[in-house]
Each structure stands twice: as structure tokens, then as C-alpha cells.
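Hi C.,

You asked whether I'd gotten around to modeling the 65-residue construct. I have! Everything is below, sequence then structure, no commentary in between.
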Amino acid sequence: MLKETHDYCHQNQGQLHLTGTNCCDLIVWTPKDMQIIRRVKDDSWAMNIPIMIDFYFKTFLPSFN
């Protein structure tokens, strides 16, 4: 099972919020196995958006100068 802190989980939540979708299936494949993990939109995740915007403009973009 994928940990909630994995980057894919954050990516899924961002995509769910941007598209207005309530759930998606994350397919994890390896040569030995495949898992289908149902990801449900977490409205509390949206509290991170102002923090991410702040980081993007104050830290990420200026690093390219």
C-alpha cells in the first residue's frame, strides 16, 4: 500500500482538486504485481494550496534567477 505522504498521493490530490473530480484510480505496476488504489478527494488537503503558492513564488521561481 502507498503511504499518504508519498509524492504520488500529493500529485493525485492536486489533480483531483484541479479537475473537480471526487476520486481516481492509481495503478501501481511492477514486474511482479499490480495494484489498483482508489484515491478519494481529501478536502482538507486544499489547506496546503496557499502554502504551495507561497513556496512557488517566493522560493521556487526566484531560484531560476
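If it helps when you're writing up: DSSP finds two helices and two strands in the chain.

Thanks,
B.
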